């Protein structure tokens, strides 16, 4: 979890909305084409069968009439043909009947048969066969033409759907980018006037209204914090001066300690208000990172081990001794960074104080390249802090100790001002780990 930004972006493996809409449109077009093709095929097949049945029926009617009057066979009629379908070999009455024969022999078939008895029971059956091969060949050509036309329409519709989906996706990405900037702390980010009057435009307008409301509330909160801290600064200074006039003793020590705590709280609130208002500007110079870190740890007056890890192959980590000792000179050059040393010391000091106050000894600070790692061996950071980052006046789990919850908030704000990355995590074997990585 980064202390600089709590924004979570979707993973790089996500599927673009443009592709989803284009795929949906293509699938819809393919289903529509398949449905139309199936409908045309079924209707045409039924029409071919109905016309063949009518032709066979009329042919057997005419042939039966001629056979009855002259005794000759016309219209291609035959008596008791051997390939007659079984359902027509022994009709129960003298009426005309038809049957479809799917068999194919050479260029003949499938066929439609019509049959009728020439006389009473046991008389020969007069049958006529209508060849449907040409009509069915035409149906197959129609199916191929429909398939080719559907593929052509699908090939033309897919790019259009992709382009149209891209217009919607582009507008949604604009709204998403604005929301991400607001989440990252840019309260002046706005989507602006949206095209059209559809749902995307409503979402963009809603995001802008939300940003306006959020900005007003945060400005009110920040102004209140700054005003309270500024107004308290003078009376707290007076309290501290008045405490110095008390006679030495336990009461005087206790009162001075409480007044100093109140003064530190006011100074922290003022610093947070300046960071929130964007009034702070870093003054960057090239400094030895290990020396600045050792100085910051030393000023805390807390028993902290500072270790300088070599940037490459060599003797490995080197113990810098207690908080009041500087790193020992080694053959490896110490890392040099360009940053604001005062703000860097403030970050390191806050992390070290937080580790001692809410964690447990031993507390170790490791310097390597452009990275500073502060680790304690206490209960670790609470899940809420790892998920959302530090929040003012919020100390997380009770086992982490008491406090105002401002130290990590100030460290996060100063890190953001330096363009550094401050991440919070817990070690596998226990203890909180804060990692500060300065920019190149």
Automatic annotation (TrEMBL):
Low complexity biased stretches: 317-328
GO MF terms, alphabetically ordered: phosphorelay sensor kinase activity
The EC number(s) this enzyme carries: 2.7.13.3
Reactions performed catalytically: ATP + protein L-histidine = ADP + protein N-phospho-L-histidine
Name by which UniProt lists this protein: histidine kinase
Domain Histidine kinase, residue spans: 227-440
GO cellular component, one term: plasma membrane
Biased composition (Basic and acidic residues): 94-104
PROSITE patterns per UniProt: HAMP, HIS_KIN
HAMP domain location: 166-219
UniProt-annotated location(s): Cell membrane
Domain of life of the native organism: Bacteria
Region ranges (Disordered): 74-107, 304-340
Pfam hit, one: HisKA
Transmembrane segments: 21-43, 146-169
Predominant subcellular localization, coarse grouping: membrane
CDD domains hit by this protein: HAMP, HisKA
Keywords: Kinase, Membrane, Phosphoprotein, Transferase, Transmembrane, Transmembrane helix, Two-component regulatory system
InterPro entries in UniProt: HAMP_dom, HATPase_C_sf, HATPase_dom, His_kinase_dom, HisK_dim/P_dom, HisK_dim/P_sf, Sig_transdc_His_kin-like_C, TCS_sensor_his_kinase
């Amino acid at each position: 979890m980064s202390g600089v930004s709590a924004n979570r972006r979707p993973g790089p493996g996500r599927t673009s909305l443009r592709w989803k809409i284009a795929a949906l449109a293509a699938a819809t077009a393919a289903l529509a084409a398949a449905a139309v093709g199936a409908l045309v095929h079924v209707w045409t097949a039924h029409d071919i069968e109905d016309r063949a049945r009518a032709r066979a029926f009329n042919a057997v009617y005419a042939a039966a009439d001629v056979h009855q009057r002259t005794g000759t066979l016309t219209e291609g009629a035959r008596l008791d043909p051997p390939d007659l379908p079984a359902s027509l070999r022994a009709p129960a009455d003298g009426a005309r009947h038809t049957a479809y024969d799917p068999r194919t022999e050479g260029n003949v078939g499938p066929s439609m048969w019509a049959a009728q008895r020439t006389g009473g029971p046991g008389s020969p059956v007069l049958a006529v066969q209508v060849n449907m091969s040409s009509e069915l060949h035409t149906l197959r050509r129609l199916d191929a033409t429909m398939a080719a036309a559907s593929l052509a329409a699908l090939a033309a519709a897919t790019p259009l759907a992709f382009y149209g989906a891209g217009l919607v996706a582009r507008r949604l990405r604009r709204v998403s980018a604005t929301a991400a900037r607001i989440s990252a702390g840019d309260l002046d980010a706005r989507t602006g006037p949206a095209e059209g009057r559809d749902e995307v435009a409503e979402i963009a307008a809603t995001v802008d209204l939300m940003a306006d409301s959020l900005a007003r509330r945060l400005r009110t909160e920040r102004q209140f914090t700054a005003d309270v801290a500024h107004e308290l600064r003078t009376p707290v200074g007076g309290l501290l001066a008045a405490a110095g006039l008390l006679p030495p003793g336990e009461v005087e020590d206790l009162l001075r300690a409480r007044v100093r705590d109140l003064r530190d709280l006011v100074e922290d609130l003022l610093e947070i208000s300046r960071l929130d208002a964007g009034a702070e500007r870093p003054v960057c110079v090239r400094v030895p990172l290990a020396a600045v870190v050792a100085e910051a740890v030393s000023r805390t007056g807390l028993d902290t081990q500072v270790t300088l890890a070599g940037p490459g192959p060599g003797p490995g980590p080197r113990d810098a001794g207690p908080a009041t000792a500087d790193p020992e000179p080694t053959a490896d050059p110490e890392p040099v960074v360009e940053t604001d040393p005062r703000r860097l010391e403030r970050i390191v000091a806050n992390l070290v104080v937080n580790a001692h106050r809410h964690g447990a000894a031993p507390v170790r600070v490791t310097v390597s390249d452009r990275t500073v790692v502060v680790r304690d061996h206490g209960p670790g950071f609470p899940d809420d802090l790892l998920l959302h980052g530090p929040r003012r006046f919020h100390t997380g789990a009770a086992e982490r100790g008491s406090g105002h919850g401002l130290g990590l908030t100030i460290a996060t704000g100063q890190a953001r001002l330096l363009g550094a990355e401050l991440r919070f995590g817990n070690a596998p074997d226990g203890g909180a780990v804060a990692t500060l990585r300065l920019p190149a």
